[in-house]
Protein backbone atom coordinates (compact mmCIF):
# COMPACT_ATOMS: atom_id res chain seq x y z
CA UNK A 1 0.00 0.00 0.00
CA UNK A 2 1.35 3.40 -0.97
CA UNK A 3 2.11 5.82 1.84
CA UNK A 4 3.28 9.42 2.09
CA UNK A 5 6.28 10.47 4.13
CA UNK A 6 6.52 14.21 4.75
CA UNK A 7 10.25 14.77 5.21
CA UNK A 8 9.81 18.48 5.83
CA UNK A 9 7.42 17.76 8.70
CA UNK A 10 9.78 15.16 10.17
CA UNK A 11 12.64 17.66 10.14
CA UNK A 12 10.37 20.26 11.77
CA UNK A 13 9.19 17.82 14.45
CA UNK A 14 12.72 16.78 15.39
CA UNK A 15 13.77 20.42 15.76
CA UNK A 16 10.63 21.80 17.46
CA UNK A 17 8.92 19.09 19.51
CA UNK A 18 10.34 17.95 22.81
CA UNK A 19 13.00 15.26 22.72
CA UNK A 20 10.87 12.99 24.88
CA UNK A 21 7.85 13.37 22.58
CA UNK A 22 9.80 12.58 19.42
CA UNK A 23 11.54 9.70 21.16
CA UNK A 24 8.20 8.31 22.32
CA UNK A 25 6.62 8.49 18.86
CA UNK A 26 9.65 6.98 17.13
CA UNK A 27 10.26 4.46 19.95
CA UNK A 28 13.89 5.56 20.18
CA UNK A 29 16.01 6.95 23.02
CA UNK A 30 16.38 10.66 23.73
CA UNK A 31 20.10 10.70 22.93
CA UNK A 32 19.50 9.44 19.38
CA UNK A 33 16.89 12.13 18.78
CA UNK A 34 19.33 14.67 20.21
CA UNK A 35 21.90 13.60 17.61
CA UNK A 36 19.32 14.13 14.88
CA UNK A 37 18.57 17.57 16.27
CA UNK A 38 22.28 18.42 16.19
CA UNK A 39 22.61 17.49 12.52
CA UNK A 40 22.91 13.74 12.17
CA UNK A 41 20.78 12.62 9.21
CA UNK A 42 17.45 11.18 10.34
CA UNK A 43 17.32 9.35 7.00
CA UNK A 44 19.37 6.61 8.68
CA UNK A 45 16.38 5.88 10.92
CA UNK A 46 13.93 3.07 10.02
CA UNK A 47 11.37 4.33 7.54
CA UNK A 48 8.54 2.93 9.68
CA UNK A 49 9.64 5.08 12.64
CA UNK A 50 9.87 8.14 10.41
CA UNK A 51 6.37 7.37 9.16
CA UNK A 52 5.06 7.48 12.73
CA UNK A 53 6.51 10.96 13.15
CA UNK A 54 5.18 12.07 9.78
CA UNK A 55 1.66 10.91 10.76
CA UNK A 56 1.75 12.58 14.18
CA UNK A 57 -0.93 15.29 14.61
CA UNK A 58 0.85 18.56 15.34
CA UNK A 59 0.94 22.31 14.76
CA UNK A 60 2.96 21.77 11.60
CA UNK A 61 1.44 23.57 8.63
CA UNK A 62 1.58 21.41 5.50
CA UNK A 63 2.63 23.31 2.37
CA UNK A 64 2.76 22.39 -1.34
CA UNK A 65 6.53 22.93 -1.22
CA UNK A 66 7.07 20.24 1.45
CA UNK A 67 9.40 17.41 0.50
CA UNK A 68 7.05 14.43 0.36
CA UNK A 69 7.98 10.86 -0.52
CA UNK A 70 5.27 8.58 -1.88
CA UNK A 71 6.35 5.00 -1.48
CA UNK A 72 5.28 1.37 -1.22
CA UNK A 73 7.84 -0.43 0.93
CA UNK A 74 6.30 -3.90 0.67
CA UNK A 75 6.06 -3.66 -3.11
CA UNK A 76 9.70 -2.60 -3.50
CA UNK A 77 10.96 -5.30 -1.13
CA UNK A 78 8.86 -7.99 -2.85
CA UNK A 79 10.14 -7.00 -6.28
CA UNK A 80 13.75 -7.04 -5.11
CA UNK A 81 13.44 -10.47 -3.51
CA UNK A 82 11.78 -11.86 -6.63
CA UNK A 83 14.58 -10.63 -8.91
CA UNK A 84 17.78 -10.75 -6.88
CA UNK A 85 18.61 -14.45 -7.25
CA UNK A 86 18.39 -14.45 -11.02
CA UNK A 87 20.21 -11.13 -11.26
CA UNK A 88 23.19 -12.21 -9.16
CA UNK A 89 23.44 -15.39 -11.20
CA UNK A 90 23.35 -13.65 -14.59
CA UNK A 91 24.46 -10.12 -13.89
CA UNK A 92 27.77 -10.51 -12.12
CA UNK A 93 29.83 -10.17 -15.30
CA UNK A 94 30.20 -6.66 -16.69
CA UNK A 95 28.89 -6.57 -20.23
CA UNK A 96 30.59 -3.82 -22.18
CA UNK A 97 27.89 -3.59 -24.84
CA UNK A 98 25.32 -2.85 -22.13
CA UNK A 99 27.44 -1.54 -19.24
CA UNK A 100 26.55 -2.42 -15.67
CA UNK A 101 28.28 0.11 -13.47
CA UNK A 102 30.32 -1.45 -10.71
CA UNK A 103 28.74 1.00 -8.26
CA UNK A 104 25.26 -0.20 -9.23
CA UNK A 105 26.24 -3.85 -8.83
CA UNK A 106 27.81 -3.16 -5.42
CA UNK A 107 24.69 -1.24 -4.36
CA UNK A 108 22.50 -4.22 -5.25
CA UNK A 109 24.72 -6.55 -3.23
CA UNK A 110 24.66 -4.17 -0.24
CA UNK A 111 20.86 -3.90 -0.36
CA UNK A 112 20.62 -7.67 -0.55
CA UNK A 113 22.80 -7.95 2.57
CA UNK A 114 20.67 -5.37 4.42
CA UNK A 115 17.42 -7.15 3.56
CA UNK A 116 18.82 -10.53 4.54
CA UNK A 117 19.87 -9.16 7.93
CA UNK A 118 16.81 -7.03 8.71
CA UNK A 119 13.04 -7.26 8.48
CA UNK A 120 11.24 -4.69 6.33
CA UNK A 121 10.20 -2.59 9.32
CA UNK A 122 13.86 -1.96 10.16
CA UNK A 123 14.90 -0.67 6.74
CA UNK A 124 16.19 2.89 6.95
CA UNK A 125 15.08 5.62 4.57
CA UNK A 126 18.55 5.73 3.03
CA UNK A 127 18.44 1.99 2.43
CA UNK A 128 15.00 2.40 0.88
CA UNK A 129 16.45 4.91 -1.59
CA UNK A 130 19.17 2.39 -2.45
CA UNK A 131 16.54 -0.34 -2.76
CA UNK A 132 14.58 1.73 -5.30
CA UNK A 133 17.76 2.39 -7.29
CA UNK A 134 18.63 -1.32 -7.22
CA UNK A 135 15.17 -2.26 -8.49
CA UNK A 136 15.45 0.27 -11.31
CA UNK A 137 18.77 -1.23 -12.40
CA UNK A 138 17.35 -4.76 -12.36
CA UNK A 139 14.27 -3.66 -14.32
CA UNK A 140 16.38 -2.11 -17.08
CA UNK A 141 19.23 -4.60 -17.18
CA UNK A 142 19.33 -6.82 -20.25
CA UNK A 143 20.45 -10.41 -19.85
CA UNK A 144 22.58 -11.63 -22.72
CA UNK A 145 21.78 -14.84 -24.59
CA UNK A 146 25.25 -16.01 -25.61
CA UNK A 147 23.91 -18.36 -28.28
CA UNK A 148 21.93 -15.53 -29.86
CA UNK A 149 24.99 -13.27 -29.82
CA UNK A 150 26.94 -15.93 -31.74
CA UNK A 151 24.02 -16.42 -34.13
CA UNK A 152 23.95 -12.69 -34.86
CA UNK A 153 27.72 -12.59 -35.24
CA UNK A 154 27.70 -15.44 -37.76
CA UNK A 155 24.90 -13.74 -39.71
CA UNK A 156 26.97 -10.55 -39.88
CA UNK A 157 29.88 -12.55 -41.25
CA UNK A 158 27.60 -14.26 -43.78
CA UNK A 159 26.28 -10.90 -44.98
CA UNK A 160 29.81 -9.82 -46.01
CA UNK A 161 30.15 -12.80 -48.35
CA UNK A 162 33.75 -13.12 -47.13
CA UNK A 163 35.55 -16.03 -45.49
CA UNK A 164 36.88 -15.96 -41.92
CA UNK A 165 40.38 -15.72 -43.37
CA UNK A 166 39.50 -12.81 -45.65
CA UNK A 167 37.86 -10.88 -42.80
CA UNK A 168 40.87 -11.48 -40.57
CA UNK A 169 43.21 -10.18 -43.26
CA UNK A 170 40.94 -7.16 -43.79
CA UNK A 171 41.76 -5.97 -40.26
CA UNK A 172 45.46 -6.93 -40.55
CA UNK A 173 45.20 -9.82 -38.13
CA UNK A 174 46.35 -13.47 -38.32
CA UNK A 175 44.21 -15.62 -40.62
CA UNK A 176 42.62 -17.39 -37.63
CA UNK A 177 41.59 -14.14 -35.87
CA UNK A 178 37.84 -14.40 -36.59
CA UNK A 179 37.69 -18.18 -36.14
CA UNK A 180 39.46 -17.82 -32.76
CA UNK A 181 36.85 -15.29 -31.57
CA UNK A 182 34.11 -17.74 -32.52
CA UNK A 183 35.89 -20.65 -30.83
CA UNK A 184 36.40 -18.73 -27.58
CA UNK A 185 32.79 -17.58 -27.49
CA UNK A 186 31.43 -21.08 -28.23
CA UNK A 187 33.52 -22.60 -25.45
CA UNK A 188 32.89 -19.90 -22.86
CA UNK A 189 36.51 -18.76 -22.79
CA UNK A 190 35.66 -15.14 -23.64
CA UNK A 191 32.41 -13.76 -25.00
CA UNK A 192 32.04 -11.43 -27.97
CA UNK A 193 29.95 -8.98 -25.91
CA UNK A 194 32.80 -8.62 -23.44
CA UNK A 195 35.24 -7.52 -26.13
CA UNK A 196 37.44 -4.49 -25.55
CA UNK A 197 36.67 -1.27 -27.41
CA UNK A 198 39.67 -1.92 -29.63
CA UNK A 199 38.35 -5.36 -30.61
CA UNK A 200 34.89 -3.92 -31.27
CA UNK A 201 36.45 -1.32 -33.56
CA UNK A 202 38.29 -4.06 -35.49
CA UNK A 203 35.12 -6.12 -35.80
CA UNK A 204 33.23 -3.04 -36.95
CA UNK A 205 35.88 -2.49 -39.62
CA UNK A 206 35.43 -6.06 -40.79
CA UNK A 207 31.63 -6.30 -40.56
CA UNK A 208 29.85 -2.94 -40.47
CA UNK A 209 32.01 -0.49 -42.40
CA UNK A 210 33.64 0.90 -39.22
CA UNK A 211 30.26 1.63 -37.57
CA UNK A 212 30.71 0.39 -33.98
CA UNK A 213 27.20 1.42 -32.94
CA UNK A 214 25.69 -0.54 -35.81
CA UNK A 215 27.83 -3.54 -34.86
CA UNK A 216 26.49 -3.41 -31.31
CA UNK A 217 22.93 -3.03 -32.55
CA UNK A 218 23.25 -6.06 -34.83
CA UNK A 219 24.92 -8.20 -32.18
CA UNK A 220 22.24 -7.34 -29.59
CA UNK A 221 19.23 -7.94 -31.82
CA UNK A 222 16.72 -10.13 -29.91
CA UNK A 223 19.26 -11.30 -27.30
CA UNK A 224 17.24 -10.64 -24.12
Instruction: Give me the secondary-structure category.
Output: mainly alpha
- Please report the total strand number as a whole number: 2
How far is the N terminus from the C terminus?
32 Å
Proportion of residues in β-strands: under 5%
Rg, rounded, reads: 26 Å
The low-pLDDT segments are 92-97
What's the pLDDT, averaged over the residues? 90
Query: Which strand order spans the largest sheet, edge to edge or round the barrel?
Result: 1-2
Order of helices and strands: EHHHHEHHHHHHHH
The shape, in one word, is: rod-shaped
Number of distinct helices: 12
Main sheet attributes: strand count, strand direction, barrel closure: 2 strands, antiparallel
Residues in helix, %: 55-70%
Helix and strand arrangement:
Blueprint: E1 3-6, H1 7-16, H2 19-26, H3 30-37, H4 47-55, E2 68-71, H5 73-90, H6 102-117, H7 125-140, H8 146-160, H9 164-170, H10 177-186, H11 197-207, H12 212-219
Antiparallel strand pairs: 1-2
Helix pairs in contact: 2-3, 5-6, 5-7, 6-7, 11-12
Description of the molecule:
- This protein has 224 residues and is mostly helical.
- Helix content is 61%, strand content 4%.
- It has twelve helices and two strands.
- It has helices at 7-16, 19-26, 30-37, 47-55, 73-90, 102-117, 125-140, 146-160, 164-170, 177-186, 197-207, 212-219; strands at 3-6, 68-71.
- It has a two-stranded antiparallel sheet with strand order 1-2.
- α5 packs across α6 and α5 crosses α7.
- The longest helix is centred in the middle third of the chain and has 18 residues, at 73-90.
Structure, briefly:
Helix content is about 60%, strand content about 5%. The protein is built from twelve helices and two strands.
Amino acid sequence: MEKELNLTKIDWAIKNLSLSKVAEVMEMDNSTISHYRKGRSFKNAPITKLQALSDLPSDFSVKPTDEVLKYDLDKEVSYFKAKIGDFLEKGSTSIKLIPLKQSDFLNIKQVNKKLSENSSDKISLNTFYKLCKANEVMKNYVYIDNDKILYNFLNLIKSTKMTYTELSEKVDKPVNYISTIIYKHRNGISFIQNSTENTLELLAKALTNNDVDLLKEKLLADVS
